[in-house]
Amino acid sequence: MNSTTRGHCSSDSLSLDLKTNLERIRSDIGNSCDIKCRTFHKKGPGERDYKGAVLHTEGLADVRPLLQAVMSRYPDDYEERCRDADSFVTYLTDSVLSDGCIEEITTYDRLFVLLLSGYSIMLVDGAGKGLGVDTIRLNARPVEEPNVQAVVRGPREGFTEVLSWNTSMLRRKIKNPNLWIESRVMGVQTQTMVAIAYVKGIVSEEVLQEVYARLDRVDIDSVLESNYIEEFIQDKQFTAFPTVFNTERPDVVAAQLLEGRVAILVDGTPFALVVPALFTQFFQSSEDYYQRFDFGTLIRMLRFGAFILAIVTPSFYIAVTTFQPELLPTTLLLNLASQRDGVPFPAFIEALVMEVVFEILREASVRMPKTIGQSISIVGTLVIGEAAVEAGLVTAGMVIVVSITAISNFVMPAFNMGIAARIERFFLMAMSATFGLYGLFLGIILLIVRLSSLRSFGVPYLAPFAPLRYRDQKDSLFRAPFPWLRRRPDSVPAPHRLRTRRVR
Fold this sequence. Notes:
This protein is α+β, with helices and mostly antiparallel strands and 504 residues long. Helices cover 44% and strands 12% of the residues. It has a five-stranded antiparallel sheet, sandwiched between helices. The protein has a five-stranded antiparallel sheet with strand order 6-7-9-10-8, with helices on both faces. The model is unreliable at 1-9 (pLDDT under 50).
């Protein structure tokens, strides 16, 4: 018998016999050592004695307050109100276990979900129902500053791996009853809690129904991170550009919700998904709105320029030096020609080798211990680049081009958009090595056509540039002052556009 069959839980109703219930639980859960059981006896009316058991998962629940409440002395009306096992369970719910969240359990299926989520389960002999008491004890990473999306000015808190903490951080940002947070369980084996957050009255019903429809189609064994869901609900499977936005910042999610988007939060990961996602959204940082609008505009334009450099720079260098050297100034052309004297490889192979080496160093720096990872990546890049130039394997110009490209890649605030730039860079390099500048421009045209064809939950990916929406240009390439941003973006469907009121 495999583990899947042995661990199968049933939706059968609980038995009236306590011993039968305990044996069934131990059997279905494989006598797991972390499932603890504590039995108790409580004197009833006359000579009657109530027998019960409290089960909990070690490390997930703090069962001591519950046991103290059960074993403590009950009020004088206890024996009068407890005439049978069912009334005893009702009495515990109403008078003894008044603190915390209590849920009535009638099936084994629900019992296992609560037990393995940190609830304590109370069963009483002779009662056809049990109680699930919220005794969850969270051993989780505290709220810290995000590592990936850090800012100079702005909130320092980031999502954690605990779903309830993440939803509470959203509540702190949006103190409005229209912020609705609905939950569902996903993953047949993991039974992962997933929350869908949106602002009622701002979100488009069409977008919301599309989100629910796509989530309903997700059929997966486990959900251990938000990307498990992202790959099911994204619009295009085969594209380097992300059509679902992810972030670990509560302030970013709150701002996106107030524009009419929907957030998906998954228990066990600090990264929330936000849909629909636009191309310009991946170049916007929360810090753009925490600084003056002129500085925010400058930095945002810098990010767009860095994205172009990250994609085009190696390809342009390959095309010009290989096919169109007459476009270069004479002095620069002679300098590059002297550098290439003795280099055995064409410019494309040079660029390809240097890009691959840099990707290896970047990946190694991520996997190595933090204390030495950054130092190794910097020293390794400098040493390898200098050694390659001295050995005559690559030119100094190529090292400079690859370095500029790599640094430009880090300017983008969204990590997954940086990955897209790295992938598309190799495509444009191949086009430039084959057809020169004609190939580079053809590759850029194909890239733009591809972007124009993408949609995210029914919204054009390149909006507000294609289709062109003039009003949304205030918060796309530029960041206009807040008094000018009185309307929500037209690119994202929302029934109510006005988001500020003029002071009279």
